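Many introductory courses stop at the sequence. We go one step further.
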Amino acid sequence: MAKAVGQHVWGKLFGEKAGGNGRSALLLVDPKPEAESEQSLTLRLAFVVMGTEAPLFPSFLIDDWGGEVRGTSVYSWVRENGNQFPRAEIFGFDRQGNSVQCFVRELELYAKLLCFAFPNRETPLAEGRLVHAILLPDAAVSQVEKIKRPSPVKRPLASARVSWWQVPSDLTHFNFSLLDDAQAAEFI
């Protein structure tokens, strides 16, 4: 059985408390760990389906000549070729885990990817947490600070619809009102 493309990372997920918007922040400890550990999480990035804003978790793509594209290469293929080859077919899953097949032209090609975090690769897609912020620990930092996406972060994670934050290494909780303040500041 085919599975949605996923990326193994080490991190910790913070969730907004009751009464909030149900937002999540990922403390990203290691984006490319060598082994599984208690800090292991799986990130799955979803395309946005045009007109519905529904996430599509890709599994693989078939281009106009019948060639298959698998793994994280699906994201770069769509980014580089989506406009030239709108009839390429993408196969994947909706949020409920149902198989979905559509043409690349049905995707919002310029929309940022939705980032979902899962405790492991076997977790059902419906149980993933939408990530709103990625927190990067730094021993030299004493307070939480919004930053631009660091250049070492590579695609597809670099194309995620998240805000980026530098945080102290010993961070134990995240103040989600900072997301509201940062969003308000962008409109001033």
